[in-house]
Amino acid sequence: MAELHGKTVVIKVSGKVFASPHLKEVLEDVVNLAFSGIRIILVCGSQVQIDEKMKAAGMEIMKKDGIRVTPPEVIDLMKIVDVEIGVEILKVIEKMKHVPKILRPEAVTAEPISEEFKRTGSVCSVDTDSFSVADRTISAMPKIFIVSALAKAADGQFYNVNADEIAADIAVSLQAEKVIFLSDNGVQDRSKELTFFQLKASEAAKLMENNTAGGGMIPKLKAAIEAVDAGVKAAHIVSFHPGEFLAEILSNLGKGTVITKD
Question: For the whole prediction, is pTM greater than 0.85?
Answer without folding.
Answer: yes
